[in-house]
Amino acid sequence: MAQQTYTVTGMTCEHCVRSVTEEVGALSGVTDVAVDLPTGEVTVTSDQELGVDDVRAAVEEAGYKLTA
Amino acid sequence: MAQQTYTVTGMTCEHCVRSVTEEVGALSGVTDVAVDLPTGEVTVTSDQELGVDDVRAAVEEAGYKLTA
């Protein structure tokens, strides 16, 4: 199991949190996504380590930006 | 035809705009809802004048507050 925390900018409300959770959660192998709205921290748990480009693409698909 | 502008607080993104538009748009007689996100102004067009309590209830159902 792998767990990685990213920082996402642009989320302003619970709808934004839901969008990011859904897109990142749809990545292959992801078992949990936890978003902290005030900080923008997105913690992703997955069966194996994810490629940051895949995570970035999912975040951008939701309409937000991955910064770290 | 009636048109009335209200001010709604708490909307922070386009998802919020969509939620308010959907809830207010579902009120009987409403034919158009236009939301300006930066100002929170919601302009509602309807067949007949709406009761402010009905509009307030729809806005609160969406998760926001009607202030004026």
From TrEMBL, chains A, B:
It comes from the Bacteria. GO terms for biological process: copper ion transport. Pfam families: HMA (PF00403). One of its GO terms (molecular function) is copper ion binding. InterPro entries: Cu-bd, Heavy-metal-associated_CS, HMA_Cu_ion-bd, HMA_dom, HMA_dom_sf. The keyword Metal-binding applies. The keyword Metal-binding applies. Keywords: Copper, Metal-binding. Residues 2-67 form the HMA domain. This is Cation-transporting ATPase. It comes from Prauserella flavalba.
